[in-house]
Amino acid sequence: MFETLKNAFKNKEVRTKILITIGLLFIYRLGCWIPIPGLNFGALDAAFTSEGGVFSENGLLGLLSGVTGNALKNGALFAIGVTPYINASIILQLLTVAIPKLQEYSKQGDEGKKKITLITRIITLVLAIAQSIAISVSFYRAGAFYTDVFGPLTNDGAIGFFIAVLMVTGAMLTMWLGERITDYGIGNGISLLIFVGIISSAGLAIIAKFQEWFGGSETAPWELVGFLLLVIAIFMLIVFVDTAERRVQVQYAKQIKGRKMYGGQSTYIPVKLNASGVLPIIFATALITFPQMIAQMINNASDFSQWWNKWLGAGTPIYSVLVALLILFFSYFYAQIEFNPEDISRNIQQYGGVIKSVRPGKPTTEYLSRISKRLTLFGAIFLAFIALVPSVIFAAVLQDATLVNAFSATGMLIVVSVALELNKQLQSQLMMKQYKGFLK
User: Fold this and answer.
1) Percent residues over pLDDT 90 in the chain
2) What number of other Cβ atoms are within 10 A of residue 195's Cβ?
3) What's the pLDDT at 399?
4) Nearest to 334 by CA among 409, 277, 414, 270
5) Rama region for 280: left / alpha / beta (φ>0; ψ in -120 to 50; rest)
6) Most buried in the list 50, 176, 269, 298, measured by CB within 10 Å?
């Protein structure tokens, strides 16, 4: 990774893309600290430091604030970050499987991509409006509206509307920054914005622990060392599984056409152990927390909300079992989308290839399907382990909730996945520049 960055800065074009990316990420982080007028930040800070409820460390807004790098806790312009865009992308992926017209767009190349991008933006705007209104209502119930700042405009409804509009504007501007990073920077702009937000939250937690250490705390250094060792161990496990793959060897027969001979070489089909990445965890947690989110936004003290928090809230046994089952379901769902054994078998047979000891046609399809299902099962078990076990280990070893919530399971997977993808992109861009220089 460090060698790739060193070589990237030596190349002028790649270095320019890196600097553009850094500049746009700086603008994003600046927007995470620009305050929204009309908020009482003292009341907002008190709400986020309270125990229990939607603003707590394990509450809905507390977790959302961690993903955005504490932008929501700061009452900043980019308070909801890229969350609406992520949800819109997930919804569109599910709809693409069910709606033939969207499937047609996905196969139309650049023109279809533009149409899908436009639909994603529209869904993002709708979700940003709904989410900003819900958060504005939560701010109002927490007593975080500061009416004196507007003078004659002292109506709570008008202030809430104004705050919601600014949050929607921030969400759309965040989406625009992500797209500019993808177009003019290194690439994967949205993923990099999430990456920076998670790293910022973890960095702030570590800095706070260092301040306790220098302030004379005797337990702070041991908690910090334990936290870093656990994070490194989990990161190594994630990297190992994320890069693991089953290589199915394919042998192509020799073909003579005219005076030239084609084929005769041996290659392989890489089948990844965790092909779906972090998406099954995101889908599972989003689905099981959606009723809780609606209940907390409408009335956190209702009987339904209290029942849900008691039996199906985060950390309860039933919650853990349901999350594991949903992760298993979505892992198989995405495996069927990403890896189609029938199409791969047809392509192998069309180009004169054969898998050793497996007959072409239906036996090859069944063989590839069997491999895919087994790998998907191991990948789903790994995702369920990462989603549930690390938080339990952190809570048992560390007593500080700030460090425990610094890196969520989804956050760790996203950080590792984005870092590995960033390294691959830099390597591919450096290779393209080398080929261009060779052709010149």
Assistant:
1) 6
2) 21
3) 59
4) 277
5) alpha
6) 269
